[in-house]
Amino acid sequence: MQAIVDGFFAPLGATAQAHIRDLGDGRGIGVREDEPVILVSVVKLFIAWEFRRQVEEGLVDPAAPVRTTAADRLGGTGTAGFRYDSHISVWDLAALMMEVSDNSAADLVTARIGASSLRSLPARLGLKGTRLIGPPRTILEDVARDLDVSDLQALAHVLSAGAVTTAELRATSAWDPARTNVSTCADLTAFMRHIWNGPEPIAGDLRTWTGRQLTGGRLSRLAPSEVQVFGRSGSLPGWLNEVAVWEWPDGRRHAIAVSAQPTERNFREVELAMSRTALALTEAMGR
Hints:
By secondary structure, this protein is of the alpha+beta class. It has helices spanning about 1-10, 45-55, 90-100, 105-115, 115-125, 135-145, 150-160, 165-170, 185-195, 200-210, 265-285, and strands at about 15-20, 30, 35-40, 65-70, 85-90, 180-185, 230-235, 240-245, 255-260. It folds into 2 domains: about 1-135 and about 180-285, DD-peptidase/beta-lactamase superfamily (Beta-lactamase), CATH 3.40.710.10; about 140-175, no CATH class. The strands form 3 sheets. Strands 2-1-9-8-7 form a 5-stranded antiparallel beta sheet, with helices on both faces. A two-stranded antiparallel ribbon has the order 3-6. It has a two-stranded antiparallel sheet with strand order 4-5. This is Beta-lactamase class A.
């Protein structure tokens, strides 16, 4: 399998890690599946699961209104790019976090569930290759410190002005698996199996949110039309991730995780290689 996967990425100047797991019996196939991969926005899947668990246990009121202000905005989609202050239920913030990868919503949901609960989640689920530091704001604050920038507003100005080189940016903690939110492809497919086989109210809502992802779809480009796809992606310059579940008409269900590290500006070609990898993994599982 490694030769096949490397054959997709090596001509593109990229490397990759990948894993597929049968959601029924748990068997899997992988390529460098235990190597650390930076989560980026895939961390939102963990935030969503912990939020939904706490709602189910009565620890969080899903209808509680949350006021979003300029101080919460990180830039980007959803509330992160709002022009005006607003009041939104924490449930709808979770949906925005998952469906449009809203970074500010991820911060606000994490504030409700508690960052300590997020950090303890991998140990509770036995995900030994996963370490969760915090939501997007925490990661960006670390980057600001690394660059000796006073705050996130100043960081946004520095980045928009092009005052930081690519090399300087990639030397920060956000690009370092030892200092940011990290997992492995094997852990990610194990987590998806835990979600899909968990209590139906929680599993059902996670399926709904991952089924509505508007950004990503990297692994599904070559998926057969009859396959139902659920997923969550994450991106940094030089890092492209996605974890997904493919549900087949015959009842098979596969969790697939692929992470790629391109060295050139050929993201579309690398994303296509990620989808080729997903398809090759499913074919290997079917043999």
